[in-house]
Amino acid sequence: MANGSGAHPLRVLVAGGGIAGHALAFWLTRGGHRVTVVERFPALRATGAQVDLRGQGIEAVERMGLLDAVRGKLVDEAGVAFVDARGRAKATIMANTSGRGRQTLTSEYEIMRGDLVRILHDASKDDTEYVFGVSVDGFEQDEQKVIAHFSDGSSGEFDLLVGADGQGSRIRQAILPAGCDPYWRVGIHMAYWFIPRIASDSNIRDTYMVPGGRQIMRRSHNPTETQVYFVMREESEEASASHRKPVERQQKFWVSRFRDAGWQTERFIDGMQTSPFFYSQEIVQVRTDNWSKGRVVLAGDAAHCASPYSGMGISGGLVGAYVLAGEINRHPGDLPTALANYDSVLRPFVDEIQGEVNPRLLRLGMPMTQRAIDAFQAATALACFLHVPDLAARFSKEDRGGSWQLPENPAPIIAV
After folding, report:
1. This protein's superkingdom (predicted)?
2. pLDDT tens per residue across span 76-95
3. What's the pTM value of the predicted model, to 2 decimals?
């Protein structure tokens, strides 16, 4: 492919083969650029828990021509039930499948992260160089180029380096001022893993509240597997440090916090030991004043992680990649302008989706006492009886991304 603007195609290195990295490769190669994606895992990292698409994220996938492929891999999750210690549903909020308004707690487009990665990879692999088992260990840059140093001892010269290496981005750390803390914390921690599915695991996501600001969620994504989530409110150094410890110690920490929780906790903890993977994290947002420095730019969670509670984490990564690629494709010979436009165009959208996360509201959904749990469930049950969640979703004029509109196509000019 050739860039139709007459500018020389850029050599772009993307550090990170996740959602944002794949979406960038898709759009940049269609703009005529030569893209290399390096991923530190030894193979395509098509793993992870259930994610969703909402608002502008759905539109971004549709513009890629991949919405039908996504529909073919959707998880059957009809809604969310709040259950008691016996597993009885006290209130259930169903997904909004009307095709209009706002998504509810369950999106109309629920998909496993691994399936979405595979769809994006299949759509971009023929035009992109993917290198697995390698990471960017360092780089230096001047006005003409970026020289990246890789974990295998090799180096490469590029016109642009994109840090799409996630919430804990090493590229971001290298370009931010010393001592800058990019994390906005909400005092919540989460762990999730997979266990075998049993007959009582339905297509409704179960949410069980436990005194002490704790919550357990169960959702099933295929006929044989169920996802388990432990979530808790805690602002302690021990909790924050636990995620950096070996997996065995992470698991021990979570067991210590939930051993007495009741419901199906014993089953979930037993399944933790044989799960194919286990992931533990502190819920944070990434907030920085700048997303680029010279010929290095951040994308996806590395730039603007909105957290799972925004409901727009995956959509934000797809939209951010769309905007960044669009500005590069429109200004391939003027990277300073492209990167400045990326910031000014995308920043209002990021502010909108990050602003959806309100720690006070989150705490209301994670009560400390059984009395508060009972009150929450009673209020939710009444709202459901009156069809408030359904009506509010259907008649809402905007989804979580607000009224912000996607710019024109990121690859408007191309010759094949």
Report:
1. Bacteria
2. 999 999 999 999 999 999 98
3. 0.92
